[in-house]
């Protein structure tokens, strides 16, 4: 399988975008979770009843990354035909 | 045997819906069957690559979310508190990562190769018989064992309504078998979409019910704090949830899912790039909501209905205590839907491996159209019956294998799929080395070196499988060059 299909460059770019979001998602989760949650629970602050670490890491992480994914797809993902007829350089 | 009809009725309504979808899909299968063997296989095992965005999102999420997210996971969250919800959020990428990572590349390549299954893709990509046989064998063994475990869980849910274990199992298995055999992949995907919606409604209902019963979020969290301050930390009770271990869940249930054949096959089944885009946008909040919602319910339950001893009983107990009876029945349909949408895909995956990847490749290359379609239907039914019999009295080998199913499949398939797509030099010898290294080190590590460097068992075998792949590929490529 050779890499001369013009659609492959865009598909690689999209895969890398997905992977980047995944890494940022992890950093957000880890940063807020352990950054705000590592102290003694006696000193926790609260947002809407939840400990702040949980609110930012899990609840806002869920909201923010749902939006990030939506924006990434809207602005960086391109529509393309998926069938073999979709390209001129048919490599097999 | 007294049956609780208030609980049973919503389940019956739901089952009728599932049968109706099976009936609807059977028309597509019958039509494809009348056309040709190739058309039939593409419809039965891949729904003629016709999934729209909503159905794709739902079938992807619902296939992944199983009994453990509705029963087991919330049970652990009850004992470990918010730390376990924190861990469960590593599953948030389920909704976007597989589709973006395998991406359009997988859909385009599979169409060029006319690949219908993941093993089919590996066969055409690597042209290596050992890879095909080992990959199919892993699918059949690992998925058979996970199916048994899931079916046992489903029978338990019916038990909650007063039915016997055997009767519950029989109703469940019959339903799945009927719609999968008559409707194939299309029925599986459409029922998954229905099941995904049932899960969303169920999760929302029990979440609201729990918060109201506990007198508000703040009140519940403070009760948890007074019970044991550890319950509101990210570390679990007495530091049970260690940092490297919980972080490595991002590999096991985040990244690694792209290597699960029953998940990956969905990335070749969508209609066009627009449906893929929509699926990512819909699937991400759906996956996040279900994971966050159900595990949070389990953790909060500690402050609402304290004193439950068995983790698996947390959600059933909570359901009965915080929801009115008619809504409890609706909720029970949630975990049932989670299980059903997981096993239907596994069932189809196993039969596609047997028929498409093994029988048509190695046993009978010149099977007639008629034989192919009859055999697919028969295999699906027979596999279902075998799992039914094993679920009635589970053999210890299957119980043992089930422990390795998730990580084992990921260790086997992840690199052969990913590198096969994105690394043009990747070859059959490398894929074979990766597959063997991945599965064997996973099973060995699980026995002798659980949590190496504090991580989950799956991480190191994945690293080793990658090394084996790259090493063997570069060694064998050099040899080929020397020969020229």
CATH topology of chain B: Sodium/glucose cotransporter
Number of strands of chain B: 0
Shape of chain A: elongated
On the 0 to 100 scale, the average pLDDT of chain A is: 86
Radius of gyration of chain A: 20 Å
Give the helix/strand class of chain B. Answer: mainly alpha
What is the percent of helical residues of chain B? over 70%
Q: Termini distance of chain B?
A: 76 Å
What's the overall average pLDDT of chain B, rounded? 86
CATH class designation of chain B: Mainly Alpha
Architecture of chain B, CATH level 2?
Answer: Up-down Bundle
Structural description of this entry:
The complex is a heterodimer of chains A (92) and B (484). Chain A has 92 residues and is mainly alpha-helical. Chain A has one domain (6-78). Helices cover 62% and strands 4% of the residues of chain A. Chain A is built from 2 helices and 2 strands, in the order H-E-E-H. Chain A has a two-stranded antiparallel sheet. The longest helix of chain A is centred in the first third of the chain and has 32 residues, at 6-37. Chain A is elongated and about 65 Å long. The N and C termini of chain A lie close together (8 Å). With 484 residues, chain B is mostly helical. Chain B has a single domain (5-395), classed as Sodium/glucose cotransporter, CATH 1.20.1730.10. Helix content of chain B is 79%, strand content 0%. Chain B has 20 helices and no strands. Chain B has helices at residues 5-35, 37-46, 53-64, 67-80, 82-88, 97-113, 118-126, 129-159, 165-213, 217-227, 243-252, 261-264, 273-304, 314-322, 325-363, 369-392, 396-402, 405-422, 428-448, 459-483. The longest helix of chain B has 49 residues, at 165-213. Chain B is globular and about 65 Å long. The N and C termini of chain B lie far apart (76 Å). The chains are: A mainly alpha (92), B mainly alpha (484). Chains A and B meet through helix 1, strand 2 and helix 2 of A and helix 5, helix 6, helix 10, helix 11 and helix 13 of B.
């Amino acid at each position: 399988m050779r890499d001369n299909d013009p659609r492959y460059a865009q598909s690689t770019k999209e895969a890398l975008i997905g992977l980047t979001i995944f890494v940022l998602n992890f950093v957000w989760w880890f940063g807020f979770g352990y950054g705000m949650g590592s102290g003694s629970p006696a000193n926790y602050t609260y947002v809407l009843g939840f400990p702040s670490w949980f609110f930012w890491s899990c609840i806002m992480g869920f909201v923010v990354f749902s939006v990030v994914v939506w924006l990434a797809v809207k602005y960086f993902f391109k529509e393309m035909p998926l069938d073999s007829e979709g390209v001129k350089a048919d490599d097999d | 045997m007294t049956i609780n009809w208030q609980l049973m009725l919503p389940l019956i309504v739901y089952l009728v819906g599932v049968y109706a979808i099976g009936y609807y899909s059977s028309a597509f299968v019958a039509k494809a069957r009348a056309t040709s063997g190739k058309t039939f296989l593409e419809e039965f095992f891949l729904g003629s690559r016709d999934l729209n965005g909503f159905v794709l999102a739902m079938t992807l999420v619902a296939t992944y979310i199983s009994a453990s997210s509705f029963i087991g996971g919330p049970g652990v969250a009850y004992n470990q508190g918010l730390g376990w919800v924190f861990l469960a959020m590593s599953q948030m990428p389920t909704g976007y990562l597989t589709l973006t990572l395998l991406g359009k590349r997988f859909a385009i390549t599979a169409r060029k190769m006319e690949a219908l299954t993941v093993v089919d893709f590996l066969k055409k990509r690597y042209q290596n018989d050992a890879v095909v046989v080992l990959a199919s064998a892993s699918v059949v063994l690992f998925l058979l064992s996970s199916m048994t475990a899931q079916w046992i869980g489903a029978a338990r849910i019916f038990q909650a309504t007063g039915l016997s274990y055997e009767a519950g199992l029989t109703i469940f298995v019959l339903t799945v078998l009927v719609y999968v055999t008559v409707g194939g992949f299309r029925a599986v995907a459409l029922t998954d979409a229905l099941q995904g919606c049932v899960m969303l409604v169920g999760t929302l209902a029990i979440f609201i019910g729990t918060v109201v019963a506990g007198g508000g979020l703040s009140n519940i969290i403070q009760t948890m704090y007074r019970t044991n301050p550890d319950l509101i930390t990210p570390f679990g009770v007495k530091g049970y949830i260690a940092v490297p271990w919980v972080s490595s869940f991002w590999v096991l249930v985040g990244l690694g899912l792209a290597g699960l054949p029953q998940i990956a096959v969905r990335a070749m089944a969508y209609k066009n790039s627009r449906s893929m885009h929509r699926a990512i946008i819909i699937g991400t909040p759906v996956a996040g909501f279900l994971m966050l919602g159900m595990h949070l319910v389990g953790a909060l339950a500690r402050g609402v209905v304290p004193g439950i001893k068995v983790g698996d009983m947390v959600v059933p107990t909570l359901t009965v205590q915080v929801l009115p009876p008619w809504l409890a029945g609706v909720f029970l349909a949630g975990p049932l839907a989670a299980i059903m949408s997981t096993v239907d895909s596994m069932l189809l995956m196993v039969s596609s491996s047997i028929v498409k990847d093994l029988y048509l490749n190695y046993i009978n290359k010149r099977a007639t159209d008629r034989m192919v379609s009859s055999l697919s239907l028969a295999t699906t039914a027979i596999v279902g019956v075998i799992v039914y019999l094993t679920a009635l009295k589970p053999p210890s080998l299957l119980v043992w294998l089930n422990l390795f199913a998730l990580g084992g499949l990921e260790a086997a398939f992840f690199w052969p799929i990913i590198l096969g797509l994105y690394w043009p030099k990747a070859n059959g010898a490398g894929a074979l080395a990766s597959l063997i290294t991945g599965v064997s080190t996973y099973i060995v590590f699980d026995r002798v070196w659980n949590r190496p460097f504090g991580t989950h068992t799956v991480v190191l075998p994945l690293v080793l499988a990658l090394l084996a792949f790259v090493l063997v590929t570069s060694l064998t490529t050099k040899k080929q060059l020397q020969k020229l």
